[in-house]
């Protein structure tokens, strides 16, 4: 239920229906759109929404569903219910075209059985009765005319007419030629008068030729005569034409009688055509306003994410502008939003957006919101919008408002959505404010849901203290002195009356006089609100900067921890190898010393022999001693290529080359990716790389490539957050050698799309970016080619 009756008009729902009707192909569909109204059954609303969503999916992603002919076959079926009645050739042709459309649609969905379950429910298991089409096609041709061979009798009559007309034409041509030779005819050729072929004869010669005069010229100098010789032939043609008409009526009557048993089926086909036209129009309108299906729940609540007023969206779209999306939440804890802020700041549009979208959803229409939005069901929608003063009812503007408030207080409940624009206006603010507060208090006790716009400070104070009420404001840029049309929950907004007056150019002395006339308390409240908004904006900007820095710190800490782990693992391997080598050297040295001593003993300490053995010992020890580390020899840059193993300068760190760019190489060191100068790396063989590192790296690369998805969804993220995620994602893709990526950012107002594409242009590795195909998301998805 919507109260008052004109509330739907003021919210724009009537205009929505007119726009949907413009997409209908038939009068039946337009009539069905005209009967759209708010429903309260969850199952019915859910079914209508899903039908529209499925048809929208067909229009966007599936093969074309050919729908070309919609006629009112219900009236034609009702016509032949009565015995003896018949359908004309044109009417039978309409039935034929409509049934061809019906059967084409049924076949389309039979081929896709199970894919569109809610649309399939429209058919109600209707059979394809081809006998009806065959019967009509046997009588009516593709142009909607009766076939010459529709019956043997009609074929005989048609042949007789053609023969008689041919003989009459030959005879008239002969007589006309003789009359011309005799000089009896007037200027001109043979002509038709009263359906008869006549010769133009000069009036003075009309007695020279026998025949019937059908007409004469305006001057009386020419008469149009049907020669006596062809009179009988023309009569025969006329008689045959009467016979033909009687035969056609007989054939049409017989065909109509043959179709009479199928009247119930024809009515079902009519119902399918009507419903299909209706759903198709709703789906086309959903595409026009970029609508989605929200999450539908039974509780009286709503959570609109990136909602747009459909009529405002279409108007701004024509002008090349975009709508600032609305985000608002109403639930059991936050039942009523008291919306304040400057004039022309978007308060009324925000409230009307809530009301219109709620009615549209409960009427089974998709709405322009993010598909993550949640919309519940309300039994009643009460709206007080605009001026309803009435001379006939002796109601002033304020009296009309009070009449509605009385109805609201008496009839509202927990499942009522109340929308009040400029609450309390129309009378002395000193009294209007308290009355509005008392009404709001009474409505709040009934746990209604709603949105209320106001400029009254007492309502802002009341909303701040009362349970279930929440202040909200439309953000205003107090530096540029212009509204931003963004809804901010949690705090009231200033009306910016003096600031706007100053911007418009009202004399300063007038503004100062006005400031002196308002109360000190009110002035302090308004100034406090302005200062609060300015401070909050600064805090928000600082918070964003701090969050950005914190994310970078977290990344650096994570990378540092990975590097430390990797170095710790390498250190153990190096020490282990060094210990093995040292043990081997010691073992060989011991053997050499023992052999030398043994030989000295055998030589009985011969001086020369002993000296020679000592020299040999010294030489062998020098060979087996730990050699001094050679100077670092950087690899020849022309020899380096992707996949080579290298060692870093002044380090035992080993990595594999992922890519080479100019003077830099991109290394994979465990999980870490690093960019270093070419001269800082030395190429090594794969044998010099510890097996543990090779196995670990191979496993990590394989796992990383297997787990990496060349698609990222950044919808719902702030600009900085989205760019941060894309930066990490792009780096990983470059490391793994992917040639293209897909970034899903949504359409919205195009702000995030522009920000992302501008950022991608800074990467030299990005070859080009382009939109996804229009059928699969269009400019809501960006393809990046590397």
UniProtKB/TrEMBL annotation:
Residues 529-627 form a coiled coil. The keyword Ubl conjugation does not apply. This is Endonuclease MutS2. Endonuclease that is involved in the suppression of homologous recombination and thus may have a key role in the control of bacterial genetic diversity. Acts as a ribosome collision sensor, splitting the ribosome into its 2 subunits. Detects stalled/collided 70S ribosomes which it binds and splits by an ATP-hydrolysis driven conformational change. Acts upstream of the ribosome quality control system (RQC), a ribosome-associated complex that mediates the extraction of incompletely synthesized nascent chains from stalled ribosomes and their subsequent degradation. Probably generates substrates for RQC. It comes from Paradesertivirga mongoliensis. Belongs to the DNA mismatch repair MutS family. MutS2 subfamily. It holds the Pfam family MutS_V. GO terms for molecular function: endonuclease activity. Keywords: ATP-binding, Coiled coil, DNA-binding, Endonuclease, Hydrolase, Nuclease, Nucleotide-binding, RNA-binding, rRNA-binding. The keyword Calcium does not apply. InterPro entries: DNA_mismatch_repair_MutS_C, DNA_mismatch_repair_MutS_core, DNA_mismatch_repair_MutS_sf, MutS, MutS2, P-loop_NTPase, Smr_dom, Smr_dom_sf. It is an enzyme of class 3 (hydrolase). ATP binds at residues 341-348. Residues 712-786 form the Smr domain.
């Amino acid at each position: 239920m919507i109260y008052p009756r004109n509330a739907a008009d003021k919210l724009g729902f009537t205009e929505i229906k007119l726009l949907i009707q413009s997409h209908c192909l038939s009068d039946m569909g337009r009539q069905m759109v005209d009967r759209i109204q708010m429903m309260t059954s969850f199952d019915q609303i859910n079914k209508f929404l899903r039908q529209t969503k499925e048809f929208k999916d067909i229009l966007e992603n599936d093969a074309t569903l050919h729908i070309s002919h919609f006629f009112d076959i219900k009236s034609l079926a009702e016509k032949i219910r009565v015995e003896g009645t018949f359908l004309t050739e044109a009417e039978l042709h309409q039935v034929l075209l409509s049934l061809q459309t019906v059967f084409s649609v049924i076949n389309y969905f039979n081929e896709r059985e199970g894919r569109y379950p809610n649309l399939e429910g429209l058919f109600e298991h209707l059979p394809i009765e081809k006998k009806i089409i065959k019967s009509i096609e046997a009588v009516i041709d593709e142009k909607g005319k009766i076939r010459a061979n529709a019956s043997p009798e009609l074929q005989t009559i048609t042949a007789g007419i053609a023969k008689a007309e041919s003989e009459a034409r030959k005879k008239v041509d002969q007589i006309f030629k003789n009359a011309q030779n005799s000089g009896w005819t007037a200027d001109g050729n043979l002509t038709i008068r009263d359906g008869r072929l006549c010769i133009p004869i000069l009036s003075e010669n009309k007695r020279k030729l026998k025949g019937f005069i059908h007409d004469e010229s305006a001057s009386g100098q020419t008469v149009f005569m049907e020669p006596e010789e062809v009179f009988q032939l023309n009569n025969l043609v006329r008689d045959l034409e009467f016979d033909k008409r009687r035969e056609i009526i007989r054939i049409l009557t017989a065909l109509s009688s043959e179709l009479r048993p199928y009247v119930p089926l024809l009515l079902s086909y009519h119902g399918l055509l009507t419903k299909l036209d209706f759903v198709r129009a709703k789906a086309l309108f959903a595409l026009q306003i970029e609508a989605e299906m929200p999450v539908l729940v039974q509780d009286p609540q709503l959570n609109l994410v990136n909602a747009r007023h459909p009529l405002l969206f279409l108007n701004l779209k024509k002008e090349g502008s975009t709508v600032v999306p609305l985000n608002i939440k109403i639930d059991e804890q936050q039942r009523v939003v008291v919306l304040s802020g400057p004039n022309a700041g978007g308060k009324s549009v925000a409230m009307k957006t809530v009301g219109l979208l709620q009615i549209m959803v409960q009427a089974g229409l998709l709405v322009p919101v993010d598909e993550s939005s949640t919309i519940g069901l309300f039994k009643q929608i009460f709206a007080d919008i605009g001026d309803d003063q009435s001379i006939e009812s002796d109601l002033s503007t304020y009296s009309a408002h009070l009449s509605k408030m009385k109805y609201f207080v008496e009839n509202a409940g927990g499942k009522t959505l109340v929308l009040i624009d400029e609450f309390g206006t129309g009378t002395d603010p000193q009294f209007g404010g308290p009355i509005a507060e008392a009404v709001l208090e009474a409505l709040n006790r009934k746990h209604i849901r709603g949105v209320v716009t106001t400029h009254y400070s007492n309502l802002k104070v009341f909303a701040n203290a009362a349970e279930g009420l929440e202040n909200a404001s439309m953000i205003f840029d107090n530096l540029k002195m212009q509204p931003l049309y963004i809804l901010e929950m949690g705090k009231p907004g200033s009306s910016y009356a003096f600031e706007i007056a100053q911007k418009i150019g009202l004399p300063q002395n007038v503004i100062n006089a006005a400031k002196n006339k308002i109360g000190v308390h009110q002035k302090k409240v308004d100034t406090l609100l302005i200062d609060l908004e300015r401070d909050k904006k600064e805090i928000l900007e600082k918070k964003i900067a701090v969050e950005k820095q914190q994310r970078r710190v977290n990344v650096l800490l994570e990378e540092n921890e990975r590097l430390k782990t990797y170095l710790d693992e390498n250190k153990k391997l190096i020490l282990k190898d060094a210990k093995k080598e040292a043990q081997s050297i010691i073992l060989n040295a011991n053997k050499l010393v023992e052999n030398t001593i043994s030989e000295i003993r055998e030589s009985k300490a011969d001086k020369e022999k002993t000296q020679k053995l000592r020299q040999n010992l010294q030489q062998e020890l020098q060979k087996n001693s730990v050699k001094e580390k050679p100077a670092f020899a950087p690899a020849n840059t022309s020899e380096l290529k992707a996949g080579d193993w290298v060692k870093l300068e002044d380090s035992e760190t080993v990595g594999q080359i992922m890519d080479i760019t100019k003077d830099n190489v991109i290394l994979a060191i465990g999980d870490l990716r690093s960019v270093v100068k070419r001269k800082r790396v030395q190429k090594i063989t794969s044998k010099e790389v510890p097996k543990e590192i090779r196995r670990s790296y191979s496993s990590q690369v394989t796992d990383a490539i297997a787990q990496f998805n060349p698609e990222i969804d950044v919808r719902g993220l702030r600009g900085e957050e989205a760019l941060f995620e894309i930066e990490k994602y792009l780096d990983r893709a470059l490391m793994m050698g992917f040639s293209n990526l897909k970034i899903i950012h949504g359409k919205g107002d195009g702000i995030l799309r522009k920000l992302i594409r501008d950022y991608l242009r800074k990467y030299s590795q990005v070859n080009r970016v382009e939109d996804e195909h229009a059928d699969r998301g269009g400019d809501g998805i960006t393809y990046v080619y590397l």
